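Running co-folding for flavin-adenine dinucleotide.
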Amino acid sequence: MTDAYAKPELRDLVRNFTRKEIVPHLGDWERAGEVPRSLHRKAAEIGLLGIGFPEEVGGEGGDLTDTIVVTEEIIQSGGSSGLIAALFTHGIALPHIIGSGNAELIDRFVRPTLRGELIGCLAITEPDGGSDVAGIRTTAKADGDQYTVNGSKTFITSGARADFATTAVRTEDGVRLLVVPAGFTVTRTLEKMGWHCSDTAELSFVDVRVPRSHDVGGIQTLLAHFAAERISLAVQCYATAQRCLDLTLAWVRDRHTFGRPLASRQVVKHRLAEMARQVDVARTYVRHTARRVASGERLVTEVAMAKNTAVAACDHVVDQAVQLHGGLGYLRDAEVERHYRDARIMGIGGGTTEIMNEIIAKQLGV
Ligand SMILES: Cc1cc2nc3c(=O)[nH]c(=O)nc-3n(C[C@H](O)[C@H](O)[C@H](O)COP(=O)(O)OP(=O)(O)OC[C@H]3O[C@@H](n4cnc5c(N)ncnc54)[C@H](O)[C@@H]3O)c2cc1C
């Protein structure tokens, strides 16, 4: 059977880019709280931003399996899930616009974003709650060929840098998604436990006028695109776990205590075996589910299971990696320390572990 995830040329491209353009600067970006716009342009120049997007809208073609390889390789080469959240926010901001087929919006927002010239974000969550997407309170009142938008959004990835926000609003016709190009205000940039290089913002909309032609779909459109986001987070989970396992393997071979390498202790070996088992199970199930999604199946329950499986594996492995690194694992200098903090968002963002379980339980009929 051919391996749909081998893609050696793509892996080489991403690995070289990550080692040259990301790893040497990641520490600075973590301290700065954001990645520079120049990184978007550089990534676009080698075609990285367009992977998984159709050529007709300025993308490079390919599907979910290609974007998965990009994610795996960035993390495996020393990048991070926070970096992916910041650089690939368009992965959640653009699909609804593309799906609408609106040529004007595609020319104005999609193409320049894939060229690395614009930054978009997806603004769903509100201060009153994120899990209950149907309960959105930001309003868009129709007035001729315009909407007037009022409300606020929070926890918005790349919101502080965004040139436009694909925004969930409540209209007379229920929840809709509008592309809001300007006029919203960044009220606060939020400080977080992890994902430090990814800016996260609170946005305010006060009488923001948006053409009605910027409506790109309703709640079904919104829900349909959750699968790709959840798969992406699940991939970040097992890739982070694999990276932490590899870093830990190198460390336990090198580190001696009581005259012997840590790796020679049975208790350490068994911990590594359990870490490896959890990574492999997560990767196998997530990749399998992703291939089904890429081939056009509309999966909801399996995607929820994939996300929860990968989150649990990641939580376990990053914790064990820090533990096996000892005091070093607690220091900012250790890569596993960053992964440990970054990993904590995975069971919260893109639908929490509890909400994934709600989806699974519904399928069970309870
Ligand atoms: C770093 C970061 C980046 C983010 N990026 C974005 C972004 O780009 N765009 C965006 O729109 N949002 C973003 N979010 C928001 C994220 O999607 C939400 O935080 C998430 O959906 C949970 O919503 P909430 O925080 O309002 O928690 P709540 O919905 O208030 O939930 C609180 C707790 O209650 C649990 N819970 C809720 N309902 C139930 C239930 N029915 N049964 C059992 N338990 C329940 C939840 O699982 C959770 O544990 C981001 C968040 C963070 C922290």
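Result summary
The first helix runs from residue 8 to 22.
The longest strand covers residues 146-157.
Job closed.
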